[in-house]
């Protein structure tokens, strides 16, 4: 049954190459702003998550978990340490790490599932 390996490879490839493209885009935007304005713009993971939530249609003051997450990302009232960590980690580094994880699933995970299924261990 090679469908699990195929699905893992497809998911891994989408995650790996999508995050790699986003990584290049974020660094490109930062580089463009630096060349134009002479100042490096820091974009943290929390900034990227908030922008993604707004892009997906989550409204300020809305109801639901995603709206609460967006509100917390904008103005945290608890878990302040976690918020500081998310703000301190560059979004480009987070995207690159997700790209590496996706590539791992794409290459190693698919091969491992193919090996397990061909030997009958699955």
Short description:
The chain is mostly helical and 122 residues long.
Structure description:
The termini are close together. The model has no long low-confidence stretch (mean pLDDT 88). The chain is mainly alpha-helical and 122 residues long. The protein has helices at residues 3-37, 45-55, 65-74, 80-88, 91-119. The chain has two domains: 1-43 and 95-122; 45-89, no CATH class.
Sum up the structure in keywords.
mainly alpha, 77% helix, 122 residues, 2 domains, 0% strand
Specify the number of helices: 5
Structural class: mainly alpha
What is the terminal-to-terminal distance?
9 Å
Provide the helix percentage: over 70%
Q: Mean pLDDT, rounded to whole units?
A: 88
Report strand %. Answer: under 5%
Structural topology:
Elements: H1 3-37, H2 45-55, H3 65-74, H4 80-88, H5 91-119
